[in-house]
Every structure is written in structure tokens, then in C-alpha cells.
């Protein structure tokens, strides 16, 4: 039997990726290091042909050369372990693809090791969750272009499509694909938190019911906010709990989990001097949510503002929230794409920003209408310094900024925390401030540490004997 591709790791994602490949007429060999998942997958087949292997060696031997092996195993040590088992079984020119959520620096390390053996290594960002893996994810491959070209026919076939184009494009060398996936997840954190804050405001400040908010999200999903995350949030809000009959959302414990990619995004930004405050605020919102017991105790101790007696006009404030959410989303994506740009310059990756926006249009969790306007912005100006200053976004933020200000002010006055909406506004206002207060910081640094400062009216480095 000659198989065209092999998949290792048959958990949630790997089994569906294998089925997706089989649905697209690939001859797929599958292998998992424990037997059960392989057997489970074979019972799930609906007419597809997958060939199971229970030994790594026979799995590898079954593949047409150059061998193409797609790993979908737990990120971290498991990937290193699988790679070490594969190295003695592979030949020069064979290709390993890692579709897991690996840290891009791990991918670079693995790339370097496999490169020394003449084995191709592609770090592939995959987004779309369980369903996307089966029906078409967004795919972000990084590594050597000539190895990508060998597997591109398969990857583009299994990817989601947007306007008939595959949501898969070559991202750049070494860890670039996993880097792009990492920041995608950071943007996802911000997008999710912004939606959660819009919901909070509609419920607490505008006084709407869960059902009314679901209907509003449905309506928003017909316009410029149209996106997978808005769509599923409307569905979530409509779901009733089987046990109590209450909206399910009201019985879900308010402690958010995370698997680390948002944290990696923030850490990378911090390490490299990249402003990623909205993504980081979204991460911190998850961290503070985890302090449930402390928050419950603090609620009984700490004072908030006096109750607001004046009711908000519903129609007017629903529109304020919509505009504020869209404006904050612009700011969050502006930060995410700035992180792409600055890191691309740092590593000379030449990241294709327009194509990245295009492959996010379908398959992935942040898929949205909005990605089309981002793509247009880069189409008009490939070296755009920041999305905020693209004409479309500058006009949009000019007309929506007042709504964001209204929502943030009302949140502050009523004691409702809106960390990502507030952070978006602070970013917007900081970015458009030509003369900032950093002169105070420089003076303070010079005062206590003789760190020197530059002047705005002449060249040179100065120190004052304060
Ligand atoms: P699962 O936990 O369902 O699957 C993990 C797979 O890795 C299983 O097949 C598991 O085998 C295998 N595995 C674990 N340890 C080892 C090891 N030491 N050696 C060999 N194989 C091992 O996870 P997912 O399918 O959800 O995720 C797989 C990868 O895809 C992860 O890197 C994840 O971050 C990434 N990903 C997940 C997404 C999602 O929405 N779930 C989205 C995009 C990427 P066994 O069970 O037999 O131990």
C-alpha cells in the first residue's frame, strides 16, 4: 500500500484532519502511539478510506516518497518525542509537518535539528477547532518554501475556502507559521473579551435580558460585526440549561481557562517592545476571573459607586455598544497586525499581511467580514505602519470613537469593569497623541539615575544636575 500522506496523533484534531484529507481523495495512513484512538477513528468512518498502522515503522514505510507526515499531537514534549522516533526512519527530503499549537521558538529549534538531517520541517498553524479540522480549517504554514510547495496541493485542498480561494498561504521561514497562529489566538482572546464586555454592558447598564441580547447579536451579525464569534455568542445566549431551565450562561461558572497561546502572544510582545495592551488586558481578565473566591469576598468589602438612578435610552445605547465594539475590535486587530509587522521586521520574515488577513476570512475562530477591510487596507498600502491610519479605519474610528468614550465613561461611573474596551480607547488615544507625557518619565529617569534625555529642539544627549 502506498499512502500519499500520514497523520500521527488521532485525538480531537488529528482524527478530523485525517478524515478531511481522506474526503479530499488522499490515501491517508494513520498512527497513534496508543492503540485505542486508532481503533476509535476506524469505527467513525463514513465511506472514507484510512489505513491504520499500529507500528511507527510500518506506518512510515507505507508512505510514498518524499514522505509527508502531519503531526497533530499535544504541543510540547510529545512533539519532540515523536520527532525523535521518526528521525531514524526517515530519509533526506521527507517532510514532517507540525499542526499543533507549538511555540514558534520550539518550531525553530526543531527546524534547525531536522534541517541538519536534510528533513523538511514545516510548523503549521491550524485554526478552526474540531469542526474546522474536518470541514476546512485556516492553515498557516511556515518553513522552507520548496518543502511547502511539495505539500501545498494537499494543504490547500483541505483548507477552508473564502470567495473560492483556499484559506492557506505560505507564511514565511522557520517558525513564522506558528507565530502567526499564536498571535491569531491572542487576537481571539481580545475579540472574545470585547464581546463579553459588550454583553455585560447590555445586561447591567442597558438592563436587557439574555434573550434580548441574543436577538441584538443576531442583528449585529447581519452587519459590519458579522463574525463567527458574534454568531456563536448569540446561540450560546439562547441555550437553556436542561436542569434549571435558566439561560445556560447564567449557570456557567465565571472562571475562564486558557491554554497558553494568549500568554505567549503577550510575552513575545513585551519582550520585543510591541504594544499589545488589549490582548494582554484580555489575558489578565481571564486571570482575575480565576480568582473567584477572592472576588466573592471582595464584593462584600469594597465599595462601588452609588446606584445610578437614570435609565439609559435602550435604542441609543445599543447603538453606542455596537459602535464601541466595532471600534475596539479595530484597535485590537491593529495591535495584532502591528505585532506581525514589527516581528516580521525583526526576523526579516517578510510576513504577507494582506494574505494573512485573507486566510483568516474563513475556517478560523476569528473569521469575520472585517478581515476583508483589513485585506483591502494592505492591498492599498502594503507597508502601512498601523491599520488605524488606513483611510477606511481612520474614517470609521472618527465616527465611532464617541460611542466608545460613552460606553467606557458609563462603565467607570457605574463601577462595571470593561478592561478591554477601556484599553482599546487608551491605545487609540495614545497612538494619536503626537506629544506624550514620556518627557516626564525621561526627566524622572535622569533625576534619579542620570539616564540622560534627548531634547525636542536640538540634537544630542543631555543630563541635568537636578
Ligand atoms: P487531543 O488531546 O485530543 O490529542 C492529542 C494527541 O496527541 C492524541 O492523539 C495523543 O495520543 C497524542 N499524544 C499525546 N502525547 C503523546 C506522546 N508523548 N507521543 C505521541 N503522541 C502523543 O488534542 P487535540 O487534538 O485537541 O490537539 C492536538 C494538537 O492540535 C495540539 O497541539 C493542540 O494545541 C492543537 N490544536 C488544537 C485545536 C483545538 O481546537 N482542539 C485547534 C488547533 C490546534 P493519546 O491520546 O493516545 O495519548
From TrEMBL:
Cell division among keywords: no
Pathway note: Carbohydrate degradation; pentose phosphate pathway; D-ribulose 5-phosphate from D-glucose 6-phosphate (oxidative stage): step 3/3
Pfam families registered for this protein in UniProt: 6PGD, NAD_binding_2
Keyword Iron-sulfur (UniProt): no
Enzyme Commission numbers on file: 1.1.1.44
Catalysed reactions, semicolon-separated: 6-phospho-D-gluconate + NADP(+) = D-ribulose 5-phosphate + CO2 + NADPH
InterPro entries noted in UniProt: 6-PGluconate_DH-like_C_sf, 6PGD_dom2, 6PGDH_C, 6PGDH_Gnd/GntZ, 6PGDH_NADP-bd, 6PGdom_BS, NAD(P)-bd_dom_sf, Pgluconate_DH
Keywords: Gluconate utilization, NADP, Oxidoreductase, Pentose shunt
Record SUPFAM superfamilies: 6-phosphogluconate dehydrogenase C-terminal domain-like (SSF48179), NAD(P)-binding Rossmann-fold domains (SSF51735)
Domain 6-phosphogluconate dehydrogenase C-terminal: 177-466
Subunit composition and interactions: Homodimer.
Stated role: Catalyzes the oxidative decarboxylation of 6-phosphogluconate to ribulose 5-phosphate and CO(2), with concomitant reduction of NADP to NADPH.
Family matches, as PANTHER family: 6-PHOSPHOGLUCONATE DEHYDROGENASE
Family to which this protein belongs: Belongs to the 6-phosphogluconate dehydrogenase family.
Protein's UniProt name: 6-phosphogluconate dehydrogenase, decarboxylating
Gene responsible for this protein: gntZ
